[in-house]
Amino acid sequence: MRRTLGDALNWCATGTELFFAAVAGWGEEDYLAPSGLPGWTRKHLVAHVAANADALGNLVRWAATGEKTPMYSSPRQRDADIEAGARRPAEELAAWLTSSAERLAAGITGLTDDQWNAEVVTAQGRTVPATEIPWLRSREVCVHAVDLASGVAFSALPAGLLTALADDIVAKRGGAAGPAVVLTATDTGDRWELPGEGEPVTVDGPLAGVAAYLAGRPHALTASGGSLAPLLTAWL
Fold first, then answer.
1. Strand partners, 191
2. Which whole number is the average pLDDT over 106-126?
3. Three-state SS across 10-74?
4. Confidence band of 236 (pLDDT split at 50, 70, 90)
5. CATH of the domain at 70
6. Residue 205 DSSP SS3
7. Do 169 and 60 lie in a common domain?
8. Pairwise CA distance, residues 112 & 22, whole Å
9. I need a surface site. Which of 82, 143, 182, 231 has the fewest CB within 10 A?
10. What three-state secondary structure class fits 150?
């Protein structure tokens, strides 16, 4: 793993600043515009990021108290929170985004060394140490800052985060069906292999493009020979 707790805490702060800067000053029409995610307005996306802060706050509470506090009370709660949030007025939604981020930051700051090592369970059912919480949040705010479709690109994200994101996605895609792909970031020399069907397809490009491709976001990468990079299945 090429990331530390300190890295994740820094990326979490950077991504939060990027996300907040992107939505600053938005009115109702701005929030109702389409996001970069199919079927979601920017309101849906902002509601998702706000609800994510509250959900990760539950994991912080779990680590701090030892009391089992799942991210969501049921598999349906996440979707219900997003839909309800998407119906809020812009001003109210913005206030939720801010307050939820502040609560999460305060909770993270209060964790002791022992509490950082406490085990919690993610929404996907993975048991992880609490040190993973800042990484989960940094991934959310950074990638979704791009998804706001307001001018933030993957190239604006920290290089270390992009490398860690590629590592994370490749690890999660390891058992997924799909084509075998060998990826190389031409600007850093980093290389990843996605196991899959057939002869491996070689895809090269800048780190930002590689991360966007792996995350299923728009990119300009092509495979060797100039053909389009093969379509990948969803990673989350």
1. 184
2. 96
3. HHHHHHHHHHHHHHCCCCHHHHHCECCCCCCEHHHHHHHHHHHHHHHHHHHHHHHHCCCCCCCCC
4. confident
5. 1.20.120.450
6. strand
7. no
8. 32
9. 231
10. coil
